[in-house]
From TrEMBL, chain A:
Molecular function terms, GO-annotated: monooxygenase activity; nucleotide binding
PANTHER family xrefs: FAD-BINDING PROTEIN (PTHR43747), FLAVIN-DEPENDENT TRYPTOPHAN HALOGENASE (PTHR43747:SF4)
Protein name per UniProt: Tryptophan halogenase
Domain of life: Bacteria
Catalytic center residues: 83
Binding site for 7-chloro-L-tryptophan: 83
From TrEMBL, chain B:
Organism the protein comes from: Alteromonas profundi
Alphabetized InterPro entries for the sequence: SapC (IPR010836)
Protein name: SapC family protein
Domain of life, source organism: Bacteria
Length: 528, 249
């Protein structure tokens, strides 16, 4: 039995450095027996991050706190901005809103990070379905955050005390700058060893990986290897032979065209949400960073030719950044949707793109890295003898997480009523994961329940499902009639009070919160 | 202090302006009386005496908070900070003010105020570079809105007090450590006897309008003269004693 004292991480992208940070923050100090865990990141100099802007979940705040990186550092050193929600535009066609003010709205809905008003006490959805569905927008009625996003307002006041109100938020990041920040922090503050080198050979034996051979630093040995080598999957696939479990029959996209677009004016407002606009054969993400926006068209090459996809993307770019000379600024990325049959095999675990890939529809990529790395940091086996037990549990947890994430992403497609082939194929029964199909059947007869999602490591809560489901359905949808089958009262007094409170709270926040750019600028101002 | 130069706040003209926050509110260091709104009575009455000021024709014209005496200036203005737990909105909203036109509320900025800077290299910006109001400016705009509402309500409140004859002259005398005595009777307060004589219907009505609570708060607030006395302790010739007398006319 070998003690796990040497961890070698192959790959220095976001996955590699986040994993190094989380592991080092928990294990690099010596224990009472005087032992500490050494963590080495082997990073190739020839691989560069894509850097088109990434969204995080609110979980990133806790992750960075664990690693020891302050929000101030993140904003000023990695050009991060705040993210309060995802806004989905054109995912469904509707003419349900009669309200004059909302008539001009493009069909859109929000998935905000903050919980619905009153949800800590009771779910007011049944009341909403009975009184408001068809005439109003679910997220706007039950949560203040869509309104803040529409007005370009920040999630909180500058320099406020931790106890003060703030809307729930994550970040938008420039991956390249974020990696540089993590690298500097991990090597300077957390004692992580950094080798800039290429792994040229991986020696394997009956216990898994025995050693890595590098171009300039010879042989490197570890007790646990973490594969963060991206799509290369150098250890988990090439060395240990674990293949991807294909999920492209659920999620059809296999290509992304990406582009960095400047703001039309230097001080343009920054969107405080990820904008996700549905297109002919996929959707376009648009993420506001401090000095530019990161955009990409995720699409299915089986449903749209690359020529047409490029046209779709350039048309979008022309509408948001007319002065951008697109030229050679657009790059194409091909990907396979799926995840490993085994994430942890013998003495190796894959984290990040090497573990699988899902389209970035709900920014699940960084979340899965955070979850995987936190799990490894927390459950780090003491020695090789107990490693199989840990591997088994981690594999089960991560498989559950990936499956649930696929289902949640698929939900967005299943509920659409768009008519292009891509969208129709997405509603094909054979393409819908069985568990999701079952829940959708049930939700016609009762609203979404907390108890539909029972795992301790659930990726998406009932709240998220409600925001998507009731954000996309129409007044005459069977999902809107689900309250009619309930045998218990709708608790109308409590529910209508919550809607009023949300309205009042929203108004109050508008009079207090600065613009998103205003909040960002406060981090740079001389006086704090 | 130079006299204020109020100009309408303009997001273009004042785009780069900033405010250096002064926690002691030293611009108010010479004030003795401060206009307050009806909506401030509850919060201020536990911190400073509230009374009614009269104009040149002895007409009761403003609800005020007493923050000092001519001999001492504003006793709440400390070296580093404001020495009370409550702060009148009109002091808080400096260097801003408002003008009311027909249906129009204009925010004014005192460009000559020492805390106002025409660039953002110091202090907190009024606008972010996208031209949106900063949280500081939004807070000031909210304070001004409360101030306007409160001052309008205060006039209605004074009208009720006058009509019911509930105001009477307040005489305040202070005795300083060296024995010097100053007496002033330039304020009005609640006539407790007249209040006690009101019939039940009127009292009920005043209660329902929230006015009775304000009346009681004003009466109780006179005890805060002791707090003002306490705050003169650092003076070389502090107040030893304060005497209050309500003079029925």
């Amino acid at each position: 039995m070998t003690p796990i004292n040497r961890i070698v991480i192959v790959g220095g992208g976001t996955a590699g450095w986040l994993t190094a940070g989380l592991l080092a923050a928990k294990h690099s100090q010596a224990n009472k027996q005087g032992q500490s865990v050494s963590i080495t990141v082997v990073e190739s100099n020839s691989v560069h991050p894509i850097g088109v802007g990434e969204g995080t979940w609110p979980t990133m705040r806790r992750t960075l706190a664990k690693i020891g990186i302050s929000e101030h550092t993140l904003i000023t050193k990695a050009s991060a901005t705040f993210k309060q929600a995802s806004k989905f535009v054109g995912w469904h066609h509707t003419n349900k809103i009669n309200d004059e003010n909302k008539n001009s709205r493009q069909s859109h809905y929000y998935h905000p990070f903050s919980a619905p008003q009153g949800s800590a006490t009771a779910d007011i959805t049944p009341y909403w379905l009975s009184e408001r569905a068809g005439n109003s927008y679910y997220a706007d009625d039950v949560c203040f955050q869509p309104s803040l996003c529409e007005a370009g307002l920040a999630p909180k006041l500058p320099n406020q005390a931790k106890s003060a109100f703030c809307a729930n938020y994550g970040y938008h990041l420039d991956a390249g700058e974020f990696i540089a920040l993590l690298r500097e922090h991990c090597t300077q503050q957390l004692n992580v060893h950094h080798l800039i080198d290429d792994v040229v050979n991986v020696a394997t034996g009956i216990h898994g990986i025995e050693a890595l051979t590098t171009l300039n630093n010879g042989e490197i040995k570890g007790d646990l290897y973490i594969d963060c080598s991206g799509f290369n999957a150098l250890l988990i696939e090439k060395a240990l032979g674990v293949e991807l479990k294909d999920a492209s029959h659920h999620l059809f996209a296999d290509s992304a065209l990406v582009c960095q677009a400047p703001y039309e004016q230097e001080n343009a407002p920054i969107a405080c949400h990820t904008l996700s606009s549905a297109q002919t054969a996929g959707w376009i993400w648009d993420i506001g960073l401090q000095h530019r926006r990161g955009t990409g068209y995720v699409h299915s090459s089986a449903h749209q030719s690359s020529h047409d996809a490029l046209h779709t993307f350039t048309q979008y770019l022309g509408s948001v950044a007319p002065s951008l000379a697109v030229g050679d600024k657009i790059r194409e990325i091909k990907f396979k949707t799926g995840y490993r049959h085994q994430f942890w095999k013998q003495n190796c675990i894959a984290i990040g793109l090497s573990s699988g890939f899902l389209e970035p529809l709900e920014a699940s990529s960084l979340m899965l890295i955070e979850q995987s790395a936190s799990l490894v940091a927390e459950q780090l086996p003491a020695h090789s003898g107990v490693m199989p037990h840990v591997a088994k549990r981690v594999n089960a947890t991560l498989t559950y997480l990936w499956e649930r994430t696929i289902e949640f992403l698929k939900l967005h497609y299943v509920l659409s009523n768009r008519t292009e082939d891509f969208w129709q194929d997405n509603r094909n029964v054979d393409s819908i994961p069985a568990r999701l199909a079952g829940l959708l059947d049930e939700w016609k007869y009762r609203p979404v329940l907390e108890s539909d999602f029972t795992s301790a490591t659930e990726a998406f809560s009932a709240q998220s499902y409600r925001y998507i489901l009731y954000g996309m359905v129409h007044g005459n949808s069977p999902f809107c009639d689900s309250y009619k089958y309930m045998h218990t009262p709708l608790n109308a007094k409590f529910a209508s009070k919550q809607l009023q409170l949300n309205h009042a709270f929203t108004r109050q926040l508008h009079t207090r919160l600065p613009s998103h750019r205003g909040l960002i600028e406060s981090y740079y101002s001389a006086i704090r | 202090m130079t006299s204020p130069t109020y100009v309408p706040l303009d997001s273009t003209q004042h785009k780069h302006y900033s405010i250096v926050q002064d926690n002691s509110y030293s611009h108010a260091k010479d004030f003795n009386l401060v206009n307050v709104g009806f909506n401030e009575i509850a919060s201020l009455s536990g911190c400073m005496p509230l009374a009614v000021a009269v104009d040149d024709t002895e007409h009761p014209h403003a609800l005020v908070a007493v923050v000092g005496w001519p001999q001492f200036g504003n006793v709440f203005c400390g070296q580093q900070e404001w020495l009370g737990h409550a702060l009148p909105l009109s002091i808080q909203s400096y260097p801003f003010n408002y003008a009311l036109g027909e249906q129009k509320f204009t925010v004014l900025l005192d460009e000559s105020a020492p805390c106002v800077s025409p660039d953002t290299s110091v202090g907190v910006a009024l606008f972010s570079t996208d031209g949106q109001p900063s949280s500081l400016l939004k807070a000031q705009q909210s304070a001004l809105s409360s101030l306007v509402a409160g001052q309008q309500q205060a006039q209605a409140f004074l009208k009720v007090l006058r009509e019911l004859g509930l105001l009477t002259r307040l005489s305040v005398s202070i005795t300083r450590q060296d024995g010097e005595v100053h007496e002033a009777a330039n304020l009005l307060s609640i006539n407790e006897e007249k209040l006690a004589e009101l019939n039940a219907d009127t009292l009920l009505q005043l209660h329902q309008q929230g006015i009775l609570m304000a009346i009681n708060a004003m009466m109780l607030s006179l005890r805060q003269y002791n707090r003002l006395v306490q705050l003169t302790r650092t003076n070389e010739n502090p107040i030893e004693k304060v005497g209050l007398k309500l003079i029925s006319e």
